[in-house]
Every structure is written in structure tokens, then in C-alpha cells.
Amino acid sequence: MPRRRIGFWYRLAAVIAKPPLVVLIKRDWRGMENIPAEGGFITAVNHNSHVDPFAYAHYQYNSGRVPRFLAKSGLFGKGFIGAVMRGTGQIPVYRESTDALSAFRAAINAVERGECVAFYPEGTLTRDPNGWPMTGKTGAARVALQTRCPVIPVAQWGANELLPPYAKKPNLLPRKTHHVLAGPPVDLSRFYGRDMTPDLLKDATEVIMAAITRQLEEIRGEEAPKTPYDPKLERIEQRRRTARAVVDNPKQHSTVQRTQAHQEEGRGK
Predict the structure, then answer these.
(1) 180-205: pLDDT as tens digits
(2) Separation between Cα atoms, residue 108 and residue 91, nearest integer Å
(3) Are 139 and 121 in contact (CB under 8 A)?
(4) Is 142 helix (H, G, I), strand (E, B) or coil?
(5) What are the pLDDT digits (tens) for 247-264?
(6) Among 12, 168, 173, CA closest to 83
(7) Quick check: 121 and 208 in contact, CB under 8 A?
(8) At CA 32, angle to CA 179 and CA 176, rounded to 5?
(9) pTM of the model
(10) 72: left (phi > 0), else alpha (psi -120 to 50), else beta?
(11) Residue 137, Cβ neighbours under 10 Å: how many?
């Protein structure tokens, strides 16, 4: 597969990042034949470690089609990191601002220019207790339906064993293996030509997430839960548990509230 549009900054980033990745993790990479050789496309990838964007970028760099990630706008400031982010064509995401939709416009433009845009549809590290993909956000589906580009589902596993979610220290030994499996394009044709309502985007996102999950099932040799973990439902259930606790034991709840207030006051000093 030919390398295209890599450029100086991406090659520099690879020179810096690849040696430690090669030392720290072994590789079991499959499915590169499903990465399109030409034209714009999306990869939709699961997210289970702060290390996996680097490990996955290594995989796709070696495929010859470099990814353009959506990343927090704060990374695009002054200094070397900002220069690398801009130079490699990453896409800034401005959260909670009038520019929040600019990332989707930039992603659409990149796909229409023939680039690859890599999405983490979960939006954050999975909170599933066993590391399975959660419910996804609709950004990838929105760009895919707007451009009708191929969507390649990609599952990865192993970076989370090197650095588990929210862990502060890596587990260096024994040396971990980074497994990646890219599948064939997701069939979203049933959604083409229809109004992009929230329900339609949700349904298309579920199809994308199911494809990623199937790839991860093959990597792990296990079956995923029938219902993906949903952070919104978990928050609702947590509030219900808290409300029940108040009814069952209001004195204990008041004590917990006072303790939390003291802790917050102490952190504010």
C-alpha cells in the first residue's frame, strides 16, 4: 500500500515515538488489507488506555495511510507539541464553545480531500469494567453519512495492559503485546438519503460500535456483553442509589455530605 501525504512533521513524530513503542510492546497487527489505499475514509477505534493513541498511530502509519486524530484544542498551543499537532494535520476540538462543530467541519473537509480521520467514538477511555467498548457518540456517524466515505472498524487490545485506564504507572514487565484488528467497511447504506435526526445518528453509531466490538471479540476470544456499558445510564442509576440511600438513612447521608463539603473546602485552600 503506497505511503501518501505523510510529510516532514509526521515523519519526525514517527522517528521520536516509534523506538520506545518498539521496545515497550510487541505487535500482533492484522487487517491492514482493509485500510483503503486511496480516497478519504474514517477509522473508528476503541479506546482503553492513554497509551493506545500512540500505539494505534504506529499501526496506521505502517499501513501507509496516516491518521488525522481529533484532539483537545489545548494541545495546539505554543511549543513543540503544538507545532507537531499542527504540522501533522491533527484536528482541534473546542469543547463547550461556539467552535465545537468546527472539528466536524474540519473532519468532513479532510475526508473530502482524500485523508483518513481517526475517531474514538466513545469520546473517552472506556468505563466498562472489563474493557469492552461503551456506547458511542455520534460524531463519526455524522461525518460518515455526510461524506458517504468508508468507515473501517478497528479494535485494539494490549496497550491497556501496559498502562491500564486511569493508572499512573505502567506495567512494563512482562513485555505486553499490542493487538490490532481492522475489519471491512461498515455498511451504513441503509442510512443514506435520510434526514440526519438524533435517532438516525444514534442507530448508525450503534452499528459502528457493534462492528468494533466484533473485532475485539475476535482479538480476545470472548463474547462481549449483550448490552454495551452506557455512562449516562450509569449516572442515572447512581443518582437513584443516592436518593434511595437518603430515604433509607438520612442521618448517614447528611454526614457524608458534610464530609464531602469539608474535603472540597480543604482542596480550595
Answers:
(1) 999 999 999 999 999 999 999 999 99
(2) 11
(3) yes
(4) helix
(5) 777 666 555 556 555 555
(6) 12
(7) yes
(8) 15
(9) 0.85
(10) beta
(11) 18
